[in-house]
Each structure stands twice: as structure tokens, then as C-alpha cells.
Amino acid sequence: MTHSLQSPPSAAALSASIQKGRWKTVAAGFSVSPPPPPAVNFTLRRSIPRINASASSSSSSSSSSPSSPSLGAGENNELDAVSAFSEIVPDTVVFDDFERFPPTAATVSSALLLGICGLPDTIFRNAVDMALADSTCAGLDTTESKLSCFFDKVDFLTTYLFTSPPQGGDLVKLVPGRVSTEVDARLAYDTNAIIRKVHDLLRLYNEIDVPHDRLLFKIPATWQGIEAAKLLESEGIQTHLTFVYSFAQAAAAAQAGASVIQIFVGRLRDWARNHSGDAEIETAVKSGEDPGLALVRRSYNYIHKYGYKSKLMAAAVRNKQDLFSLLGVDYVIAPLKVLQSLKDSPAVPDDEKYSFVRKLSPETATHYNFPNKELVKWDQLSLASAMGPASVELLSAGVEGYANQAKRVEELFGKIWPPPNV
């Protein structure tokens, strides 16, 4: 697919859009199936030193070396305290939440685009209108290719607003970290198509000199997605593998060199409550562990014991106890109600209910033992054999949900094209 880049929004247009409103919207981010997906996932700025869970961080944020595995001086509330161990990522649905939890990173997804299309006056809706006005996309032969081109352009322009706004850069100041761009989930089972799509998007970013270290490409953790991540990472393109629900997926993703691996804690717990027959989940439950938390711990220890570069992201964290159980993991996506509770609660050393002690660290990972059957070079056959019904069903549901959202975006573009004044 060939693209030409229209001029990005002018500084005046950006400023005018910003002044018109406070960006109230409901727009989706990481989640794809009920409950409704959140909007954009953002990383908190913090005024205290943070202890990274990995020695080599690819994040744009600064970090400090750990001086203590437990609560230190200067943490006034629980949010400060837990932020000293892991990067805390608010799961937000409205841009007004920026005021309470200033972001440093963002995700651009098909569900976010659906929300943006419902906004009459924002900097983001201007990006949609510009993409729909693109003469190259409009001139393509088929409706399918035309809508796919529009989809890419809107993805690109929305990411652009987070990464390289011109003259003053209001949003780039607000979101200085990496931006993850969702790759069309309808390509989840086609390695070559995923790679082509990422290259198409990357060409657009290259034309306006968006640094590669500001970008992640979010890909479902099918075998084909994992293979695509491996090849893209070998080119220096950062990938974000999502819908990881089994140790085999996490280990294969780490071996592929994925920059970020995302595990959904709460969804595994939900599956375990209503189903049976998954050996990995039953092993965790028999040992008294929550299956989602157990998968994060095992995956983290595997990554750090064997020296993989991947960062681990714990998503669908439902409560404070989940968060405290995972202190030290690279990223934790938490609901705003949990973050607000943490912010409102003073940090109390030696708290009887919540322990401010790092649970995961590269040092403790060296002592974790893995059975030989898990220390294999993962391939398509071994991955398929190791994935139980929970990971198979949840991965499939996630891909289907993302694909449906992408289809809805294209259908909406078809209804509103051409935009006014075109």
C-alpha cells in the first residue's frame, strides 16, 4: 500500500482545538471485550525516585537504582510508595483525568478512534478530518483499500499528536513517553501482513522524523504475531505483544525479543472462576495462588533469570491487593478508583494489610526454578501444545474484539467520508 503524507495540523489549528474544550470523551484503550474498554493508558509522572524492575530500561523516563526493597523516606501516600517499585499506568476513559494523573505515555487503538470520531471539537477529531481528506487514500481503487488507508492515516496522525506536535508541542509536553499504536487485529494470524502494516505506518512516522524510540507497535500474541515481533525487533522496531494468557506465550514473546509483554491478571481470574480443565490454572490454584498473579510472577522471573530484554506489563489489575502482590513488575495498569484510593491513603510502614515490599526483582528471579519442559526453544507446535483452554479462548476473544472494533472504525469512516470542505 502506498501513502503520501499531507501536512500535519498547524500550530494555530492545534492551539484552537485545545482551547475549545477539555477533551471529554469515552474512548477505548487496552480492553476489547466486556466490560467496556478503557480509553487511553497513561503512565504517571512522579516526583520521587522510581525503582525500575529491570536493569536496562527502554522507557524514556528516568530511573534510579534500588536502594532498598521496602518503603523509604519521602513516600507520603500509598501511590508514591508503590510508584517507587513499578511504573503505574492509569486505566483512564476521559482526558480530564490528565489533571489528577498526568500521563507520560499513551496508546492509540481502534477503540480510541471510535471515541474520537464522536467528538466535534478536539485536536484529535481534526486528525480524523485530515486523514479523510487525504487525496492518496481517496484515490485508491477499492473501498477496502481506501478505508484501510484512512485507518492507517488516522492512526498515524493521532500518534503524531502525542509524539511530535509542531511549535510549542502542547501534547508532546503532556505525553513525553512512548506511544503504542495498535496493529489491525484482523491481521493477527498473518506474519507478513503484520510486518507490512507496521512498515506502512513507520514510513509515515519517518517522513516527519518521529524517533523510533517513541513508538511501540501493539500486536496480538498469536504465534504469527510473535514471529512478526521477532522480525520487527531485529530491525530495531519496538513491539508490544498483548493478550498473553499462558506461560508459553510469555516465554515465546520474551525469546522473540518483544519490548513489552502484556498479561491480563483479572481476566485469567475470571476465567478460572467459571471454567475448569486448564492445567496451568489448576496448578496455580492447588498451590494457593491466584492464576493471573502467578502467571505474572513466573513470566517476570523467566525474563529476568534468563536475561531477556522484555518489559512485563500487568493489566486488568482489579484491586489494591493485586497491585501490592506485584510490586517490582515493570508496569501495572490500574483502574482510576484504585489509584485514587492509593493517592488518598497515607503510606504506613509495616502496614498489616498491605506490605510495601518489592515482590519481584531481578535478584530474586535468579533463584526461581523452572521445569525442563518450560526451558525449550518455543516454536509454533510447542506453543500450540502448551496453551490450555483459558489462553486459547481468551486470546481468540481478544483478537475478535479488536478486529470488530477496527471494522467499526472503517464503517464509520465510510459513513462520514468525504469530510466537510472536501
TrEMBL record:
SUPFAM superfamilies in UniProt: Aldolase
Tree of life domain: Eukaryota
CDD domains: Transaldolase_TalAB
Annotated region (Disordered), positions in chain: 53-76
EC number: 2.2.1.2
Keyword Amino-acid biosynthesis: no
Signal peptide limits: none
Biased composition (Low complexity): 53-70
Keywords for this protein: Pentose shunt, Schiff base
Pathway connected to this protein: Carbohydrate degradation; pentose phosphate pathway; D-glyceraldehyde 3-phosphate and beta-D-fructose 6-phosphate from D-ribose 5-phosphate and D-xylulose 5-phosphate (non-oxidative stage): step 2/3
Coiled coil residues, start to end: none
Keyword Lyase: no
Family the UniProt entry places it in: Belongs to the transaldolase family. Type 1 subfamily.
PANTHER family xref list: TRANSALDOLASE
UniProt-recorded name of the protein: transaldolase
Source organism phylogeny: Eukaryota, Viridiplantae, Streptophyta, Embryophyta, Tracheophyta
Gene transcribed to yield this protein: A06p010630.1_BraROA
